[in-house]
Amino acid sequence: MATRRPVSLLKKGKDDVKKTWPDEPERFQEQHIDPFLLWCIESDSSDVTFQTGRPVYNEIHGVLYPATFRPLDSSDMNAIVARLYGVEANAILAGGADIDLSYEIMVDRWNRSRFRVNMTAILAEGRDGVQVTMRILPKEPPTMDQLDIEQEIRDCWNPRQGLVLITGPTGSGKSTLLAAGNRMIMERPHGCGKMLTYEAPIEFTYDTIYSKRSLIGQSEVPRHLPSFAAGVRNALRRKPEVILVGEARDRETISAAIEAGQTGHTVYATVHTTGVAATVRRMISTFEPSERVERAYSLMETLRLIVTQTLVPKIGGGRLGLREWMEFTEEIREELLSLPFESWSTTLMSMVEEHGQSMEKSAQNGYDAGLIDRRHYLTYIQSAGAMKKVEEEEKKREEESVS
User: Fold this and answer.
1) Which of 65, 107, 208, 248 has the fewest CB atoms within 10 Å of its CB?
2) Which residue, 299, 161, 352, 148, is CA-closest to 241?
3) What is the extent of the structural domain holding 236?
4) Would 283 be classed as within a structural domain?
């Protein structure tokens, strides 16, 4: 039986929403990859996705746009993965593992463009295929001003010691926020001392950030060290002031991060959670029931700040960062340590409103400022009273526009 040929989703001159690559070849070969990626950067793309049986997609301000007319076939994908990783990539993917790496293009002697890359095997049109997702990384870390980070977060960003957690779903800008925080403390007049980072892969580099009192060493997992936990143990032998752990996702890494915070270091880490209370609950749940009490109290003694971030589309284009955060002052930690850890989640949900900022409040601020629309705002409203208030405000706006 004849196989169905992939059909292009676009018709030239008719369905163009964003322009496609003007130099699109009849078939992708390795020499086409770098010029295409540089064009994607010029097109203001944040992410590029190659997938078997589909056109290449650019994500621009959170919206997907086809970047080629022709869907990619297995030959195209072979050239792409070979260019980005090597000929052994297909064997690794066929073995059931995904691949994380960084990729860079030397534009000239002084400039380079960098990407974070994930390769994952998928089912495409009934056969094994590949999806390659590439995040375009800025040439230098952004500033806190560029991200419009609240002053309260900046004020408590760099405690003398302890654990700072940046949380949120995938693609919520956690690494970008961490990079901006790193830049802020590096550029202070007294610098940050020695900072060691352990990332998988390295996303932002700090070659353009100059400070007489700051020294940063970046290691990639598993290229330089086998795991994040091994990275933290490695850091303790190198006398740093600041340690950054790319992701605290398992018991061993969380334990190592807590211990580093208890021994006088400032430790930054990311966690895939969606709120202050959920972060504490998630981290405790990684431990065995028999050791949760001890680890919970060790965590609370070490915690200094939790920031949860998510990105939502802005009216008129772009994306807005909504943030829930709370500083864990000595008084707050003492209050929580006096309670059974099973009750911390409930207590923290009420504490966030009083001692920090809830995601609902952040969404309210964005909506009141006219930066996000009602649909996205309602996503973050939890109470019926708040919903009713929004509906009344919307009705009032409609009446005013009519009059």
Assistant:
1) 208
2) 161
3) 144-357
4) yes
Residue 154: what are its φ and ψ, rounded to 5°? -60, -40
Q: What is the mean pLDDT of the chain?
A: 88
Query: Taking CA 305 as the corner, what is the angle to CA 243 and CA 272, rounded to the nearest 5 degrees?
Result: 75
Q: Are 10 and 20 in contact (CB under 8 A)?
A: yes
The CATH number given to whatever domain includes residue 237 is: 3.40.50.300
Residues 6+ away with beta carbon under 8 Å from 381: 360, 363, 387, 390
Evaluate whether residue 387 is within a structural domain: no
Q: Same domain, yes or no, for 214 and 275?
A: yes
Residue at a domain's end among 115, 137, 159: 137
Q: Identify the helix (H) or strand (E) that includes residue 89.
A: helix 89-94
Q: Are the CB atoms for 217 and 241 separated by under 8 Å?
A: no
What total of structural domains would you count in the chain? Answer: 2
Do residues 242 and 219 share a domain?
A: yes
| Distance in angstroms (rounded) separating the CA atoms of residues 250 and 257 | 11
Confidence of residue 139 (pLDDT cuts 50, 70, 90): confident
Q: How far apart are CA 253 and CA 232, in angstroms?
A: 8
Q: Which pLDDT value is given to residue 200?
A: 83
* pLDDT bucket at 384, cuts 50 / 70 / 90: very low
Give the model's pLDDT for residue 397: 62
Average pLDDT over residues 343-357: 92
Going from the C-alpha of 307 to that of each of 160, 352, 356, the distances in angstroms are 18, 11, 10
CATH number at residue 48: 3.30.450.90
| Structure tokens, 157 | 């960003």
Taking the mean position of all CA atoms in its chain, how far away is CA 5?
A: 36
**pLDDT class for 402, splitting at 50, 70, 90?**
low
Output the pLDDT for position 248.
87
Of 95, 110, 137, which marks where a domain is finished?
137
- Residue with more model confidence, 9 or 284: 284
Strand order in the sheet with 193-199: 214-220, 193-199, 242-245, 266-271, 162-167, 303-313, 319-327, 356-357
Q: Are residues 86 and 56 in the same domain?
A: yes
Mean pLDDT of 136-145: 90
Q: Which residues contact 159 (CB under 8 A, 6 or more apart)?
A: 266, 304, 305
| Confidence check: pLDDT of 374 > 90 | no
Supply the pTM of this predicted model: 0.78
Q: What angle do CA 109, 115, 120 make, to 5 degrees?
A: 145
Task: Give per-residue pLDDT as tens, 47-77.
Answer: 999 999 999 999 988 889 999 999 999 999 9
